[in-house]
Specification:
Elements: E1 2-11, E2 19-28, E3 31-37, E4 48-51, E5 56-59, E6 61-66, H1 82-96, H2 99-115, E7 118-123, H3 129-139, E8 142-145, E9 148-149, H4 163-177, E10 185-187, E11 190-191, H5 199-212, E12 216-220, H6 224-234, H7 238-245, E13 252-256, H8 262-270, E14 275-277, H9 279-286, H10 291-296, E15 301-303, H11 308-311, H12 316-331, H13 339-345, H14 348-353, E16 371-374, H15 387-393, E17 400-405, E18 408-412, E19 415-416, H16 421-438
Parallel strand pairs: 1-4, 1-5, 6-7, 7-8, 8-10, 9-11, 11-12, 12-13, 13-14, 14-15
Antiparallel strand pairs: 1-2, 2-3, 5-16, 16-17, 17-18, 18-19
Helix pairs in contact: 2-3, 2-16, 4-5, 13-15
Length: about 450
């Protein structure tokens, strides 16, 4: 199908950061065939024409860290310590999850991603990749899937597996799902944390990723206890130890990355390690990553939401807002992490972090037809004195008008086109209640019963 998007403000996020005040984007099947001004756009009929007058046309937004399978657990981890969150809530939840739970949870999360302008995501690691893959294929999103692997440490017995089994499972998942849905779905191995992954598992995972030309998704330097654990068991902090192992590189996505020294920031820069910054999840319990220091060193920083029990909002638009503010407040400098940089963290820089910048992250001829259209004519976003700043500091989910992936319209004028949204919401409500009950999770009552 061909789609003509015309008369909109086109923010390309290409190398020149070109913006066309009145521009046209032509989509031919799954590729962009033209990006430029209305005046120079090729003429001719398209299967669909979208009048984007008064709207902003962006590359599809990219969420670099999300837990699809945790969506049914929204609200089970609020206002508790990290150990309670992990031992009493998340691990029982994940250990009890079935394929069907994962499938419905993924569909629910995918719906929220679409409604927040996201066209591509990187899943952090669930137990049922097949369920996540089925949901992504059905709903039409682009994504990188992963299975959470652990070969040692504390955790549910069903989730801690021998190292050989961890590697064979990862290899099988890559062979089964990598490249499915016309290339929309990719698979990466995922090392959960240094608490639960042996050095052998990190090394063999890196060898597996290099052999298949994929990345590694890993939670790194989240809390001070992790750093102390690494020092006690490995002799040095997390980043320093992984560097000594030789597993750090451009295909190692370092998520959270909060508790680092100046020398460890230098290591990430020297090894070209990309970072997924999750502001809301970090503010809850982790701390504040030194994003200004990362940017000064040329480290590629992208944004992610984390999972629903960690953040409650799979809303990348909120993450842009938070990322644009918290570092200014910490540094007492309104010029750090400016709006243009933030927008890059969910488009071209995010694509680079996911090793996908040859096809997504910017509106360039020949790249994938992934587009998000914003309707700014609302009380909360007008006037547009500085449209780029408004996209970061004023935009809300209600401003997301249409979302297109591979040339297929997933959201049009605020209406989901590919699945029955109400049916998914109903199924998710019932299944979430049953899953929490099966997992034996007891939540406090915050209001008196009758």
């Amino acid at each position: 199908m061909s789609v003509r998007i015309e008369h909109g403000m086109v923010v390309t996020m290409d190398q020149g950061l070109r913006v066309y005040d009145k521009g046209t984007v032509l989509l031919d099947e799954d590729r962009i065939s033209y990006v430029g001004s209305d005046e120079e756009a090729p003429q001719g009929l398209a299967d669909r024409t979208i009048d984007a007058s008064g709207r902003i046309v962006l590359p599809g937004l990219i969420n670099t860290h999300v837990h699809l399978s945790q969506q049914l657990g929204r609200g089970i981890g609020d206002d508790v310590s990290l150990l309670t969150w992990l031992h009493d809530r998340i691990w029982p939840y994940e250990a009890e999850m079935t394929y069907e739970d994962s499938y419905v949870s993924s569909l629910l999360c995918d719906l929220e991603l679409i409604r927040t302008g996201v066209t591509c995501f990187a899943e952090a690691g669930g137990q049922h990749v097949a369920g996540m893959a089925a949901a992504a294929e059905e709903i039409g999103l682009r994504g990188i899937l992963a299975r959470s692997i652990m070969d040692e440490g504390e955790g549910p017995a069903s989730m801690i597996e021998p190292t050989d089994q961890c590697i064979s499972i990862q290899e099988d998942l890559i062979e089964r799902f990598h490249g499915m849905a016309g290339g929309r779905i990719r698979v990466w191995p995922s090392c959960r944390t240094i608490f639960n992954c042996s050095d052998e598992l990190y090394l063999r995972t890196q060898e597996l990723a290099d052999r298949h030309g994929v990345g590694i998704h890993a939670h790194i330097a989240e809390i001070p206890d992790e750093i102390e654990f690494a020092k006690q068991t490995r002799g040095r902090s997390t980043v320093a130890h992984l560097d000594e192992l030789g597993v750090l590189g451009p295909n190692f996505l370092s998520v959270h990355t909060v508790w680092l020294t100046e020398s460890e920031l230098d290591i990430l820069a020297a090894r070209n390690v990309p970072v997924s910054h999750n502001p809301a999840a970090a503010m809850r319990v982790l701390g504040f990553a030194d994003v200004p220091g990362m940017l000064e060193r040329g480290i590629v920083v992208a944004l992610g939401t984390d999972g629903a029990p960690s953040n409650n909002r799979m809303n990348l638009i909120s993450e842009m807002y938070l990322a644009g503010l918290i570092h200014k407040g910490r540094k007492l400098d309104p010029q750090v992490v400016p709006a243009q940089e933030i927008l890059g963290m969910v488009t071209n820089r995010a694509a680079k972090a996911l090793l996908w910048d040859d096809e997504i992250g910017s509106l360039v001829e020949g790249t994938k037809a992934d587009v998000t259209i914003i309707e700014p004519r609302t009380p909360g976003m007008l006037p547009l004195h500085d449209p780029i700043a408004n996209l970061v500091y004023a935009m809300d989910t209600t401003n997301v008008s249409s979302v297109i992936v591979d040339g297929r319209i997933l959201l049009e004028d605020g209406v989901v086109q590919t699945v029955d949204e109400e049916a998914i919401l109903a199924e998710a409500r019932a299944r979430a209640k049953d899953l929490v009950k099966r997992a034996g999770i007891r939540l406090p009552r915050r209001f008196p019963s009758n």
